[in-house]
Amino acid sequence: MTQPAVRSFLANFEKTPTTRKHVAKVLRLIMGEAVAAGWRTDNPVQGIRIRLPKTPKLAIWEQSDVDAYSAEATLQGRHSVAAMIILVWEIGQRLTDLQQFKAGIDYDAGRGVFSFAQSKTGAQVTIAVSSMLRGVLADLCRSDGEALFLDEATGNAFDTYRLSHEFRRVRTAVERAGGRGLVLRQLRHSCVIQLARAGCTVPEIASITGHTFGSVNGILSTYLPRDGTVARNAQIKRGLIPQEDRPDA
Diameter of the chain by CA atoms? Predict the structure, then answer.
C-alpha cells in the first residue's frame, strides 16, 4: 500500500469528511502497528491530513425561514422535505427519528397526533400538531404502515445522506432568492428557542423535543437571544404587567 493508494481510497469519503478523517485515523494506527511488527518499513498514512469544514455557528430559524424553505421544497416537488421542516419546527424531534416514522403507527392522521418512543430517552410521548401541518401531512397520501416521509427522487424512506442532499438543493435556491443559508440540524435547537420565547418551562420544552433538562438549559444559556419577547413573557408571568401590554402599544 502506497500513499497515493491511500489518498485514492480516502477520496471515496469526500462527501463525508468526518468519516474520512476517522477512516484515516484507523488506517494510520493499523499501518503503525505493521511498522512496529516489522511487516513494513513505512507508514503510508503518515503525513496525510484531513481538514474538516468549519462548523457554522448556530443561526436560529425564524417562522419566516420555515415558510421560505418549506415553500421552496414544495416548489421543487420535495413535499416530504417541506413537511419535515415544518414538523421539526413544531415538535423539535431528531431528524433520524423522523426518518423512521410510519403512517398510522407513529402518526394518527385522524387526530393529528404523533405518538412514539423517543430514540434517546425511550420515553413514550404523544404530541399534537397544528391544523396546517395536518393538512401538509394529509397531502403526502401515505398508507398505514408506509414510511411517512419518502424521498420523492427514489421512492424510498430518507436516509441521512439523501435528506442532506435534497435540503442543500432547497437551501441553494432560497439563498439565490435572498433568503438565509441555514443548517437543517439546527432547526431542532431553534424549536427549543421558540418554545422558550413562547413562555414554556424547561420541563415543558423537554417533554416536546426529547432533550434532557440539562441539554435544554445548555441550549437556552448559549443561544437564547436576550430579546424583548422573552423579557416581556417573564414580566407577565411575574404578574408585573398585563397580558395585553405590548412595547409598541
Answer: 80
User: Which grid cell sits at 39?
Assistant: 511487516
Distance CA 58, CA 187 (A): 9
Whether 81 and 73 have beta carbons less than 8 Å apart is answered as yes
pLDDT tens string 13-33: 877 888 888 999 999 999 889
Q: Give yes or no for residue 233 having a pLDDT over 80.
A: no
The identity of residue 25, as a single letter, is K
pTM for this model (two decimals) = 0.71
| Residue 92 Ramachandran class (φ > 0 left, ψ -120 to 50 alpha, else beta) | left
Residue 162 vs residues 7, 103, 126, 150: alpha-carbon distances, Å: 25, 20, 28, 11
3-state class (DSSP) for residue 163: helix
For β-strands 113-117 and 124-128, DSSP reports them as antiparallel
pLDDT (tens digit per residue) in 30-66 = 988 989 999 999 999 888 888 876 655 668 899 999 9
Dihedral-angle region of residue 77 (phi above 0 means left; psi in -120 to 50 means alpha; beta otherwise): left
Name residue, grid cell 422535505. Answer: 81
